[in-house]
Amino acid sequence: MKQAVLCVLLCVIAPSCWMSRSSTNEPLDLRLIQAVKPGMSATEVVRLLGAPSFVVELEPRKAYLYEHDNSKTAGLWLVLFLFANTDVRSDRTWIFFDENDKVTHIGKTLAADRAEYSLPWENLYDELPQSEAGSRK
């Protein structure tokens, strides 16, 4: 019995670390996104990319959002202190349609594959090129 209590006590107070990863939706296929061209119908876009994550009505126009999120978490438990960080990066593609349901333009950000494990004191954005870092600095 004493060994079991000691084992549980050591597990509770001993330092530990962990890593986890999660994602939402399937990754976006760049080749399929590049196949979407101005003038395509909404029906053609759905046949090509599948159902969008969100449809936004911009009367009389609309926009479809396709997205994929990738999240990585790393943590460190030191007796009384927990240090953890989660980095969430996303692939997002917005496809805008006119009042006739024809594609007018497309905007995309593909960053989900750049999610990283890190602890809170690390700055993951130091390594980004200036055009990607933007106003974060």
Write the layout of secondary structure elements.
Blueprint: H1 2-13, E1 16-24, H2 30-35, H3 42-49, E2 54-58, E3 61-78, E4 81-97, E5 103-110, H4 130-133
Antiparallel strand pairs: 1-3, 2-3, 3-4, 4-5
The third-level CATH topology is Beta-lactamase Inhibitory Protein, Chain:B, domain 1
Span between N and C termini?
56 Å
Q: Please give the radius of gyration in angstroms.
A: 22 Å
CATH class: Alpha Beta
What does this structure look like?
With 137 residues, the chain is α+β, with helices and mostly antiparallel strands. It has a single domain, classed as Beta-lactamase Inhibitory Protein, Chain:B, domain 1. Helix content is 22%, strand content 42%. It has helices spanning 2-13, 30-35, 42-49, 130-133; strands spanning 16-24, 54-58, 61-78, 81-97, 103-110. A hairpin with a 2-residue loop joins strand 3 and strand 4 (81-97). The radius of gyration is 22 Å and the shape is elongated. The protein starts with a helix and ends with a helix. Residues 131-137 have low confidence and may be disordered.
Name the features.
five-stranded antiparallel beta sheet; 22% helix; 137 residues; disordered C terminus; elongated; Beta-lactamase Inhibitory Protein, Chain:B, domain 1; alpha+beta
Provide a concise account of the structure shown.
The chain has helices at 2-13, 30-35, 42-49, 130-133, and strands spanning 16-24, 54-58, 61-78, 81-97, 103-110. With 137 residues, it is α+β, with helices and mostly antiparallel strands.
